């Protein structure tokens, strides 16, 4: 199934969910608490399935426009999942414990699309916790005479020669012990020592193998034969990396195109649009004067500024709204004064 087909199925499922949650006639309140909870649980599971499918589609689609639409829908579905979970918790039903076993995957874009931000945060934390090397204070050296220095060197040399003689004597004793014919007790004790070491090694190795087989049987460890990536897995990983690269390239191209088109519109249509807006404002002033007999005041920032003039209203409606706003401000100033 292609991702476009999956996206179409998701839209159909969301349409059905929306029709069930917002029927034409509002449903009557459900008096049975268990039935109400079951209804919430079914909606929760269905929205969770839609969330997983949407996350898969968003993770693999490369078109920037589609990704923006799917991202908005994905955020809305996640919000609805949280709302249903909150309603089930407020219902305080024992069955909600079973829903905790449902695994909710973390969307990949939580990390992939915030890689730069996370990297900057890690760098900042590393800089904050970086321990600067403290320069060691210079040690105060005491002056020494030539005789004292000679004595120290002689002591160090005698100590070195003593260690060397002790080492030679120890090696000589070890050689005598090796070439001396061992007794029966020494042979038996040596054999017992070798057997103990060997048996311990064999038992530890067999126990390790048995433990690994038991973990594989219980499903708590993976069979080593499956740990080696198979060709299909390698191909899937390669395709995923290529998809990530394409997403970044298309996103960069999309942003550049938006900037280019915006600049082009500003150059080609900017002057005409500015003149057209001035004409509309001038016409509004004239219509207000014809309707009220006087020129109105220009809307301030609190009133919405010039955006109020471009609402689909006639001059009388706009003037009426401005008069109401002025009266409210007058009443507020009198009440505060």
Automatic annotation (TrEMBL):
Q: Which InterPro entries match?
A: N-DRC_Component
Protein's UniProt name = IQ motif containing with AAA domain 1
């Amino acid at each position: 199934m292609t991702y476009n087909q999956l996206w179409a199925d998701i839209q159909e499922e969301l349409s059905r969910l929306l029709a069930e949650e917002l029927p034409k006639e509002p449903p009557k309140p459900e008096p049975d608490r268990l039935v109400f909870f079951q209804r919430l649980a079914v909606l929760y599971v269905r929205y969770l399935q839609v969330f997983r499918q949407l996350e898969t589609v968003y993770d693999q689609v490369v078109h920037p426009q589609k990704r923006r639409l799917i991202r908005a829908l994905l955020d809305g579905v996640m919000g609805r999942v949280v709302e249903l979970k909150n309603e089930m918790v407020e219902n305080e039903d024992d069955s909600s414990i079973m829903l905790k076993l449902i695994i909710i995957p973390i969307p990949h874009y939580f990390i992939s699309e915030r890689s730069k931000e996370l990297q900057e945060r890690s760098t900042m934390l590393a800089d904050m916790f970086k321990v600067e090397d403290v320069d060691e204070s210079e040690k105060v050296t005491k002056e020494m005479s030539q005789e004292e220095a000679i004595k120290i060197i002689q002591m160090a040399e005698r100590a070195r020669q003593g260690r060397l003689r002790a080492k030679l004597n120890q090696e000589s004793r070890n050689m005598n012990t090796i070439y001396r014919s061992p007794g029966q007790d020494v042979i038996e004790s040596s054999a017992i020592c070798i057997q103990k070491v060997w048996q311990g090694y064999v038992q530890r190795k067999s126990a390790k193998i048995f433990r690994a087989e038991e973990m594989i049987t219980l499903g708590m460890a993976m069979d080593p034969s499956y740990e080696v990536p198979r060709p299909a897995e390698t191909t899937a990983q390669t395709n995923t990396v290529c998809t990530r690269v394409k997403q970044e390239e298309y996103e960069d191209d999309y942003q550049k195109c938006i900037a280019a088109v915006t600049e082009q519109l500003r150059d080609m249509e900017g002057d005409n649009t500015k003149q057209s807006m001035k004409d509309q404002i001038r016409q509004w002033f004239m219509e207000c004067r014809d309707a009220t007999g006087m020129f109105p005041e220009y809307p301030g920032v609190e009133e919405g500024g010039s955006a109020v003039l471009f609402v689909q209203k006639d001059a009388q409606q706009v003037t009426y709204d401005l008069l109401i706003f002025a009266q409210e401000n007058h009443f507020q100033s009198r009440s505060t004064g």
